[in-house]
Amino acid sequence: RVREHCAGEIGKKVQASLVQFEGGGQPLLPGLTFKFKTQALEYQFDRVKKESDLNLLTVSGIVEGDVTTAAQEIAGIPAEERGRQKVTVSGEFKWTPSAGDLARLKDIWKANKTMEAEAKAIKEATDKLKDVEAQRKAAAKRMKDLRKEADELRRQANRAKRPAVKKRLMKQVKQVEGKLAKVADRDRELKQAGDKLADAIKKSTKSLDEAAAKSAKAASGMKGRFGKAVAKQMAKHSAKFIGRMLAKAIPIVNI
Question: Structure pTM?
Answer without folding.
Answer: 0.58
